Each structure stands twice: as C-alpha cells, then as structure tokens.
C-alpha cells in the first residue's frame, strides 16, 4: 500500500514538473538578438521575475502533494466509517436475529466506505495544491514574459 502511495506521489511530482515546463512561454528573438544575448536576457528575466513575484518555478514544480494523514491514511474516515457501519449492522442484525454478525459485516462495509471517503479527500487536497501551483506558475511566467517582451522578444 505504501509503495503504491509513493509511486503515485512520484508520478504527481513528475507530471507537475512537466506541466510547469509546458507552461513556459515560447520566446522568439524578434529584433535579431544573438543566442548569447537571448541567453543573457533569459537569465536576467528569470531572476527579475523570481525577485518581483517571490515565486521560484523550480521550487513550485517540485513541491510534493500533501502527505497522507492518519494512521490508516484516512485521517479517521475509516474508523468513523467502521463505527457507523457496525452500529447500522448491529441494528439490522438484531432484527435478523444475529446482532454480532450484523455488526461485523457493517464494520467491514463501513471501513470500506471510510477508505473511499479518505481517497476522495486526499484527491481533493492534491487537486487544490496543483491548482495553487498552476496559479503561482502563471503569475511567474506573466512577469517573465513581460520582461522578455520589454527586451524586444515576441512571446507566445
């Protein structure tokens, strides 16, 4: 289970890094700037954008999604699901004639439902972090593009 979680976090970080690079604007030397001049302007504009916005695109792209919380990687959703399931199973089992078996079945079903809620909550947190990272990168690249445009480059 932990191996799958590590792999999924690694894939998320890799996809964020790739998406960060995919968002970088394309620069064209519209005034015939040499490759050396473009490299110099590129470095200066990256530094200016980082200083102006306070955003480092490499650090943003390497930020991992939030780590799972709770002992069961569910922040308590599994435990509360098991408790609710056991209570419901107890009531149904009492009607059917075997309260203990009903509670056990209810606890298993409740644990599964709690695990599902835990995965949904974790996915929502990851999407929120990714959205914030995308906004930060867009802000940074707007500043970088403005700098390069001011130096005579065409930005797309």
Provide a descriptive summary of the structure in words.
The protein has 156 residues and is mostly helical. It has one domain. The chain has 5 helices and 2 strands, in the order αβααααβ. It has a two-stranded antiparallel ribbon. Helix 2 (35-53) packs across helix 5 and helix 4 runs antiparallel to helix 5. The longest helix has 52 residues, at 99-150. The relative contact order is 0.18. The model has no long low-confidence stretch (mean pLDDT 76).
Terminal Cα span: 43 Å
The averaged pLDDT comes out at 76
- Structure annotation, total helices: 5
The number of domains is 1
Radius of gyration: 25 Å
Residue windows where pLDDT falls under 50 for at least 5 positions: none
Largest sheet: 2 strands, antiparallel
Following the backbone from N to C, one meets helices and strands in this order, namely: HEHHHHE
- Estimate the global geometry from the Cα principal axes: rod-shaped
Tell how many strands the DSSP assignment holds: 2
How does the helix and strand content classify structurally? mainly alpha
Spatial order of strands in the largest sheet: 1-2
How large a portion of the residues is in β-strands, by DSSP E?
Answer: under 5%
